Structure formats: C-alpha cells, structure tokens
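Dear U.,

For the methods section draft, I wanted the exact inputs and outputs in one place so we can describe them consistently. I've listed the two proteins in the order they'll appear in the manuscript figures. Please don't edit the token lines directly; just add comments below if something needs changing.

First protein:
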Amino acid sequence: MASIKVMNMIHNQFDLNLVMVLDALIRERSTTRAAEQLGLGQSAVSHALGRLRRALDDPLFIKTAGGLKPTPRTEALTPAVLQMMEIVRNELHSQPRFDPARVERCFRFCMTDMGELVFLPPLMERLRREAPHCTLQTLQVPQARIAETLESGEADLAIGSLRAIPQGLFQQQLFTHPFVTIVATDAPVGERLTLAEFEAMDHVVVSLDGGRGSAYDKAIEELGVRRRIFLTTPHFLLIPPLLERQPNLVATVPRELGTVFARYKVVRVVEPPIGLPRFELRQHWHPRFHYDPANLWLRKLVKETFADYPE
C-alpha cells in the first residue's frame, strides 16, 4: 500500500526529484547532510521538503534535539521509498549487455552494390558464426541522406569510401585500397595499358550521387589525363556485362572489385598507365549510438573482419 502511495505521488507531482529528497532525508535525518548527499543547497532541500509535506498532507519529519524524527506516515512510506530508489540506482548504474549468441535482431548497413559484392560475404560468415540468430539488411542510400538514416536508427553503420564525410558522424578506417583498370577479356590491349590506349578508349565511371564521378576519377583528371567518359552510372555491377559487349569500353575500379569481376571470366584486370592514389574504406556511425552495446559489438565485428584485409 505504501508503494502505491509513493507511485501516486510521483504520478500526481511529475517529479522524481521529490522522492530522491525524501530518500536522502530518511537516510540522513538532516537537511544539511541530505543537501550534501544530493549536491544541492540546503534551501533547495527545505523547499522540496515543503512540497513533499503539501503533496502528502503530513509534516513527515519533526525537529528534535537528535535531528529530524520521521512521523508515522514517513515510517510507513520508508520501505517503499528505499526500495524504489534502490531500483533506480541499480538501473542507472548497471551496464546493458549485448549477448550476440542469444539476441535476435536485424543489423542494417548502408553500402553500395560494390560493398554487397565484395565486403558483405566475409561479414555474413562472421555474423553467422558469432550471432547465429541475427540477420542482415543492406540499404543503398544517397550520400546526402546517410547521416539522417544513421541518426534515426534505420541503419546501424555506413561502410564505404565517402567523398565527403557527413558532418557529425563518427568514423573508423578499415583499410586502404588501390585501383585497377578492367577491360573485356578480348579487348585488344596488353597487361598494362599505354596512356594512348587509355585515352582512346571509352570510359565507364560510377557516380553514386549523380555527379561527374568519384574521388579517384577526379584524381585521374588532376593528372592531366584526357578521357572520354561514355557512360556515368550509379551501379558497379553494370560494368562487366557492358564491357563484355563493348570491348572498347574501360573502367577503373577498386582492386577488390576488379578481382571479383575477373572470376566470372568476362573481364580482366590490367594495370592503368598512371599511378593512382589509394583510398580509405571506413565505417561510419551516428553519435546517438556511440555507446549502444549492440552498435559497439557490430563495429568491433566489422573492424576485426577486415583487420587482415590485403592492402
């Protein structure tokens, strides 16, 4: 019955702080010591005690030579107040746990079709082994919407080489990767393109946001190389069938992707005629979930999965 009265007081007054003050007064039997325990001024504790007296229609404590003496009403409420505050303290100080072997949930990644082809398979293998009841979903989100997608919890992580890191996101480098050129298997070129061949062929570039191209395309242009960009597309997976049908087409892609494409025997990897800078692949997440146990575990899983990835 006493616990019901305390809960009704909280419901009616909408102020858990009053219960905290009552708990401190019960323990300390002094407004001065209660104020010190709570980190408040003595006047604030006295004011709260006044509100408690009005809310419960009882003096609650009587001043005596030995300190504050609880009234019968306070003594009746004491077990419920102490129990309630113990629950609150335990909940506030307990660390939520994430048990990947037991939990059932879907982890969602923002990644391109290239990420799905190259990076998703090793992540799936690791997840199946360590979190057998969890599932995966990939989302292809425009770069302008990545931050809000992560903030809303619609996605847990974004993995890729973002041209401009959305403001406010955390990031962690996974590895760096070089770029190679791919051509059709029957393209009339050798294992290394000459600059003249490179400039004479029609180029396919990938642009995820509809712009001219990616960061490595800009790097090529900054080297003074003249290219005829015949097709701009947001889809990496479109490249191999296009090159197979059009041997005069050429594309420059991350090496890992070129290696996967070459396994299907429709394209082959050749060395570009110019040196290209390496680019970083990172995972990104929103500060809202920086301390979330599930997100912490997932980031660790991703980092460890690619810890020994070939540079």
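Second protein (the one for the lower panel):
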Amino acid sequence: MRQSSWTRRNLLPVRDGRRRGNEGLDASSTLALAVAGVAAGLSGSVAGLASLFSYPALLAAGLPPVVANVTNTVSLFGSTVGSVVGSRLELRGQLGRTLRLGALATAGGACGAALLLSTPPEAFEAVVPYLIALGSVVLLAREPIRRLAGRRASRAGAGRTPVPLMGAILLIGVYAGYFGAAAGVLLLAALAASSAEPLAVSNAVKNAVLGAANLVAALAYAFLAPVDWAAAAALAVGGLAGSRLGPVLFRRLPERPLRVGIALAGLALAVHLWLAAS
C-alpha cells in the first residue's frame, strides 16, 4: 500500500524513538499516567472529556504529539469497557439502537483514522474549537431542540432513527477517529437533543457508540501508527477504573445541573483550544 508523504514524514521517523530522548517510562511516569487514566475515564464516562486529562498527560510523559494522539485513542478502550459495564442498567432495551448507531460511528471512526494517516493535522484542528462549542450550546439548549426533534420523530414514525441524527453520528465518528477531544460532548448533545429519554440513558448510549468509533480507529493505529504500548496500557488501566465509577455517579446526580456543567466544561475547552491555535 502506498503511504502518503505526511505519513512517511510524521509517523515513520518516530517508530524507533517514540519518546523524546528514546527514554522508557519510569515508575513515576507510569503512576502519573494511571492516575490521569482514572481522571480521564471518570470525566469521559460522565462528560465526554477524557482527552482533557489523558492527552496532556501523554505529552508530559515525553511523547511527541502524533504519538500521543494515536496512543490516547488506543488507551480509551479501557474507558469504553468500564463505562459500558457500569451502564448496564441504562443500556437495558437499547441493544438494537446502540448497534445501529454504533455501526455508523464505526464507519466514521474508520474514515477519521484514514484521514489522520493521510492528511496534515492542521487541516482539521482549526475547526475543532467550533465543533466543541457547538455541542456545548446544543446541550444548553436541549429542551427546545428536543421538543422540535420529538415532533419530527412522531411524524417520521416511532422506532426510526431520524436522518439528521444518523448524519450527526457518522460525522462525530469521523471526528472521534481523527482527533476526538470532547467527541463525547458532541455525541451526548446529538443524542440528548433527539430524544426525550433521561440524560443518563443518552450518556450510556453515548459511551457505547463512541467506544465503537474509538475501537476501529485504535485497531488501525495498532498496525499503522507508532503507538506507545506501555503508556497506552497505563492509561487504559486507570481509565477502566475511572469509567466504571462514572455511570454510577451520573445516575445519582441531578440532571439539569449536570447537563449545564458538562456544557460549560465543553465551552471552556473550546476557548482553550481556540486560544492555543491563535
């Protein structure tokens, strides 16, 4: 298979030196990544902001940005397992819906991984803050959007997935496979705005569907990108523990303050990324 010039320039040179200075993870770095994994798993399963903790921790451990990005995606598998196990109560009766949306997210995740391996990262980074801000605003305006979506769904027929939601899931899957920061905020906003179900159920479906997009991207990176497996393992173990607790906390917290808090955290991240890119 012919590799793109970006892949040869950015990925292949770091396969033999994945950390700056070719140094391995020491005990303190491993512990720091595991702790960051707990925070990432907890925040990811509750608010969809796992990368807010895991990606900076990988950079602090000495990984170059491209290696940190792909390693972060692989490590999120631990968070997916923990959050799905912790959300068994909310996922009852959601199998068919989750499989349908998961298939769309998987297709999007595969496309996102292909884009990362074949295009400059700057091509997408410029719009990331605006996407996160959009998802946050949708969460804040959930009620009027949900009422509108409910009227359209009733006209379309019960049990059918609205076409706009299908398109949104596919695009969010692309984003998750490519970069992924706050992809959970975008997905939770799309699910919450299209259904009258409790936010805890939307969050559980979000965790499972987003996990599908991350998994297919992680499989691609495992074979085609310079994953730092020691760092990924440390993050994944912490993420498994943190994400197992997230759904338990989510179902006990009041819905409206939680939704507003997630939206405000997403807006703060959007502003941070916008300032960093300026």
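Candidate sentences for the figure legend, describing the second protein: The radius of gyration is 18 Å. Residues 1-22 have pLDDT under 50 and may be disordered.

Thanks,
Y.
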